[in-house]
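Q: Structure tokens for this one, please.
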Amino acid sequence: MTGKTVTRADLAESVFRKVGLSRTESAELVETVIDEICNAIVRGETVKLSSFATFQVRDKNERIGRNPKTGEEVPISPRRVMTFKASNVLKTRILKSHVARKIKLKPVNPAP
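A: Here is the predicted structure, written as tokens:
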């Protein structure tokens, strides 16, 4: 892994370079898209970004958990969680990238 994190600023810079909007307009566009996705998720709607992923809110029931340090049983309250499911297109791209990187890093045995 490269350890690089893609930030909102990185996304805005990419929009600026590829679309040609000003930096300010690019940043506003990125913020608007992220806000719209967040608002839809908060409302409990499913957000599907074709060829990328699906974000969905799921209800989890109350259950009994265990404190790993003390072993004490503790009730975990019901809650809503967001799930992320990568599309098959994204999964394929990740797999191809992994295979290509693996081939690239494979040591070559010199001929005797």
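A few notes: The chain has a mean pLDDT of 90. Residues 23-42 form the longest helix (20 residues).
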